[in-house]
């Protein structure tokens, strides 16, 4: 079916079709509508989900963890300060290997207070052990949320699906939805890793492990993330075959003979496509590489893709205060470090607190990157 | 001492299936407050048994008979949940 939906509406609709056993959530701007719309589905009897309205995001994630440990398919949604308040619980969900799937309408963190879109919240959760997907469009958000359930349940890891706050969460787009049965057949039933409520086979969940075992359990969790790429590629492949919409962990746009490319995540990829097209018309050899999956970081895929370019501009919609460039920049430069001949890589930070990032901005960056000269370590786009 | 297991031998999600080890670890020694159950006030509603996170309410033949101080950490949830106020929290004596 073809529908006009905002990002929030589309993700709530995907959740309805997924029909999770439990949704525990606390609303926060700009993802409030996801939970609000979903609660309407619950009260109208359109889903079988148990909806738990909790008193904070910390409790939301705690309830999700409890429900997932009891063998349920569990989802939630949050953003910004809410995700920050969940922080402690995020690590527990990952350490317990619980495939909770959460959508985040990504936005800035206070202070100063700002409700608009950037990647500060999601990137601050980078090391929590969650799979992280960044979406360019509402369609991609809808498709990725459905895929993420399958991926998380295969990898036994929780997954965060980010759409840019307001830019995607509140903008209406034409999307192609699947039918309920298509979604449910694609996902199949959830087979939990363990079930706390199975009293015929009692287990202890969340034990204390000290100097003797903590490290080994963490090593196992890291391996789970290392291997998650297999689950991601399998889900993308099956989704493409069934529904004709194909996704990759990274996507190259007009990169074939490109000398300079931009690497970035999220909705600004669309902006960069326009800039690339305009400069291509002028005969400039430029392209874009979109990173859709940030965790696991696909080291070898990125290395093989990026090694051939002369200059690369990495665009971060977040600043890792006083780091050697933005967080995506440091990942990309680390990935390229052991090559005998490396491209020039430049760090740009853009769009904090929802600051507009235009095709003209993107074209300016592309021209500078193509020119290959840069004085400062980090360029803050459009800062007065 | 038994040989420690390597990471590839451990269960996904750090769950413990061998509950013998859990029994050996007497967590009651952590307690600073002690629940004291009053048999006379108790109405046998079993709410304390439902709420106790450490399975430390001893129930025999459907009735509360006491508190297992080997594992009770003294959280006081039983006392809070008791509608008859039959459980009092007292300072743990050395």
Silhouette of chain B: elongated
Q: What's the overall average pLDDT of chain A, rounded?
A: 97
Q: In whole angstroms, how far apart are the ends of chain A? A: 45 Å
Oligomer: heterodimer
Largest sheet of chain A: 7 strands, mixed
Structural class of chain A: alpha/beta
Physical arrangement of strands within the biggest beta sheet of chain A: 3-2-4-5-7-6-12
What general form of chain A does the structure show?
globular
Count of helix runs of chain A? 12
Low-confidence stretches of chain B: none
Biggest β-sheet: strands ordered side by side in the sheet of chain B: 1-4
State the low-pLDDT regions of chain A, or none: none
Strand content of chain A: 15-25%
Mean pLDDT of chain B: 93
Radius of gyration of chain B: 17 Å
Estimated helix fraction of chain A: 40-55%
What attributes characterize this protein structure?
heterodimer, A: 384 residues, alpha/beta, 7-stranded mixed beta sheet, 6-stranded mixed beta sheet, 12 helices, 15 strands, B: 94 residues, alpha+beta, two-stranded antiparallel ribbon, two-stranded antiparallel sheet, 3 helices, elongated
3D structure, described in words:
- The complex is a heterodimer of chains A (384) and B (94).
- Chain A is built from 12 helices and 15 strands.
- In chain A, the strands form 3 sheets. Chain A has a 7-stranded mixed beta sheet, sandwiched between helices. In chain A, strands 9-11-10-13-14-15 form a 6-stranded mixed beta sheet, sandwiched between helices. A two-stranded antiparallel ribbon of chain A has the order 1-8.
- In chain A, helix 11 links the parallel strand 13 and strand 14.
- In chain A, helix 1 crosses helix 2, helix 3 packs parallel to helix 4 and helix 6 packs across helix 8.
- With 94 residues, chain B is an alpha+beta fold.
- Chain B contains 3 helices and 4 strands; from the N terminus they run H-E-H-E-E-H-E.
- Chain B is elongated and about 50 Å long.
- The two termini of chain B are 32 Å apart.
- The interface between A and B is medium-sized, with 24 and 15 residues.
């Amino acid at each position: 079916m073809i529908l006009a939906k905002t990002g929030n509406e589309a993700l709530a609709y995907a959740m309805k079709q997924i029909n999770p056993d439990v949704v525990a959530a606390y609303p926060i701007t700009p993802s409030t509508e996801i939970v609000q719309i979903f609660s309407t589905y619950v009260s109208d009897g359109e889903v079988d989900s148990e909806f738990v309205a909790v008193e904070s995001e910390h409790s939301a994630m705690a309830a999700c963890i409890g429900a997932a440990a009891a063998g349920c398919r569990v989802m939630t949604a949050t953003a910004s300060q809410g995700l920050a308040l969940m922080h402690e619980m995020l690590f527990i969900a990952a350490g317990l290997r619980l495939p909770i799937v959460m959508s985040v309408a990504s936005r800035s963190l206070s202070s100063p207070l700002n409700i608009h879109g950037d990647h500060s919240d999601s990137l601050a959760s980078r090391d929590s052990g969650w799979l992280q997907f960044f979406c360019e469009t509402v369609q991609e958000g809808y498709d990725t949320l459905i895929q993420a359930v399958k991926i998380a349940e295969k990898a036994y890891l929780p997954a965060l699906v980010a759409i840019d706050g307001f830019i995607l969460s509140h903008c209406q787009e034409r999307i192609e939805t699947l039918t309920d049965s298509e979604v449910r057949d694609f996902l199949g039933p959830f087979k939990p890793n363990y079930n706390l409520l199975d009293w015929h086979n009692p287990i202890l969940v969340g034990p204390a492990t000290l100097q003797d075992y903590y490290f080994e359990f963490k090593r196992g969790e890291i391996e789970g993330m290392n291997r998650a790429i297999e689950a991601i590629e399998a889900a993308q492949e099956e989704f493409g075959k069934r529904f004709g919409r194909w996704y990759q962990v990274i996507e190259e746009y007009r990169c074939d003979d490109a000398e300079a490319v931009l690497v970035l995540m999220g909705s600004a990829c669309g902006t960069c496509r326009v800039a690339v097209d305009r400069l291509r018309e002028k005969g400039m050899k430029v392209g874009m590489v979109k990173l859709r999956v940030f965790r696991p970081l696909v080291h070898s895929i990125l290395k093989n893709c990026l090694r051939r370019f002369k200059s690369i501009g990495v665009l971060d919609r977040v600043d890792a205060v006083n780091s050697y460039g933005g967080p995506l920049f440091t990942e990309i430069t680390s990935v390229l470090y052991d090559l005998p001949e490396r491209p020039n890589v430049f760090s740009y930070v853009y769009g904090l607190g929802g600051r507009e990032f235009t095709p003209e901005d993107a074209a300016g960056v592309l021209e500078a990157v193509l020119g290959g000269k840069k004085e400062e370590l980090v360029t803050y786009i459009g800062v007065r | 001492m038994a040989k420690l297991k390597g990471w590839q031998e451990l269960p996904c999600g750090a769950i413990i299936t061998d509950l013998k080890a859990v029994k050996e670890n007497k967590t009651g020694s952590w307690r600073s407050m002690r629940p004291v159950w009053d048999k006379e006030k108790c109405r046998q509603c079993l709410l304390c048994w439902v709420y106790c996170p450490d399975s430390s309410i001893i129930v025999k033949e459907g009735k509360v008979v006491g508190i297992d101080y080997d594992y009770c950490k003294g959280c006081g949830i039983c006392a809070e949940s008791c509608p008859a106020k039959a459980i009092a929290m007292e300072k743990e004596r050395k």
